[in-house]
């Protein structure tokens, strides 16, 4: 009875979203209501004090991705072109360039699904809308362990006392296999969008994904793990964009690229400044410093808007964020209630059972899918997974690295992020998107299981 009540909120949410019976916000409100009986049975104490303590923590966690999302919308308003530049038709090369290589590159720099927001905006400018566009944009989130320079990976490693670099290097192997194996999924979605790539283009795209996968593994040998995502995707993104829309000359290319280069330089410089004061109302949750990604993104975006005389666009850009902001806030609250109340851990334990070794990857994926964040996923279940790995006699790095990979994969397809992207699109529903993205989830679980079998 207890397990059924614990599973009810998540089951209700998924059913409502998958069937389209309720929108993302309404479905989450129903799931929040359904979680109250489960919390009453799971918690050691009364529910109300828990809600009063945990909900502000959830709001604080949501504040950071919300600030980055709105900053990304402002940046897009500052750099979007006009006239012919906005009317370029869709093509397989353009779709590929803006989704995985460029989207994953921007996600590695900024994190918090900004890469997917940029990818979706670029697809919409090509005239692509609906579930296919959202499913394509989710490919920007395949390198979540290195997103925003890897705070979730660092936190998870710190929680269980292992090297963050070594954990990321081990996570890179299944991540690389996942990226390369996504080629047929990308081709299928491009075909659904009416832009099936000919075999020559498909071969070039496969080569680009292979380059990202190989770089993801090899760059850990010479670079800090925080910048590996940037190093692996940056050259491929530049090459793919050049192929998709060759500039008239180098000056034109630099003129189009300089706002992005400025943003990246400012973000990297901000990360290089140590010891900046920060707001940290909750000692065990990430802080918000003057050099936070959101602060830099807002500052650069507003400077560009002012310098280009486009400050009037900011109101429209921020207005687009209202519904996604509410949706994301509700889902982060839901994830924190489930994780902080012990429901996520209870469901994970029920999944383990006799096949505990085979449950590590699905448990990690489920936690990331529910919480919507690699930081939250690792905070919620990394110690449990590490203890499970020790009980199974695994090497100390294996269970944490598998959880980091699987939780990040789930976070890339998460309830909150998908709902936010659907709200930005305005026509798609999460259930429609997940049906298209199901092969992505299946491949993520497959490669995590293969890695577990190879290394245990």
From TrEMBL:
Alphabetic keyword roster: Cell inner membrane, Cell membrane, Membrane, Transmembrane, Transmembrane helix, Transport
Q: Does the keyword Transmembrane apply?
A: yes
* Residues spanning the membrane: 59-79, 99-123, 168-189, 201-219, 254-273, 285-307, 328-361, 405-424, 436-455
* Pfam families the UniProt entry points to: Lactate_perm (PF02652)
Primary residence: membrane
Record's InterPro entries? Lactate_perm
Source taxon at top rank: Bacteria
List locations, semicolon-separated: Cell inner membrane; Cell membrane
Topology in the lipid bilayer: Multi-pass membrane protein
Primary role: Uptake of L-lactate across the membrane. Can also transport D-lactate and glycolate.
Q: So what family is this one in?
A: Belongs to the lactate permease family.
Its name, as the record gives it, is: L-lactate permease
Q: What species is this protein from?
A: Sabulicella glaciei
